[in-house]
Amino acid sequence: MVKDKARLPEVLHVSDVAKFLGLHEKTVCAYIREGKIRAIRCGRCYRIRREWLRDYIDSESAFEE
Predict the structure, then answer these.
(1) CB-count exposure of residue 47 (10 Å: 0-12, 13-18, 19+)
(2) How far apart are the first and last CA of the chain?
(3) Model confidence over 4-56: pLDDT tens digits?
(4) Of the four listed, 14, 35, 63, 65, which is most buried by Cβ atoms within 10 Å?
């Protein structure tokens, strides 16, 4: 996973977001359930669009940890 935002794929898995943010996958899933990170559910998995990840990073909730 490349840390350059410009090279992120359009749709990310929870593991990709966790690696990018330096968080555990369970933490990313918790943020999704809490509504901090926007995602869609595909079966038993979540998918996060690159622009939704940018929205989270730009939001104040990204700095409340």
Answers:
(1) middle
(2) 23
(3) 555 889 999 999 999 999 999 999 999 999 999 999 999 999 999 999 999 99
(4) 14
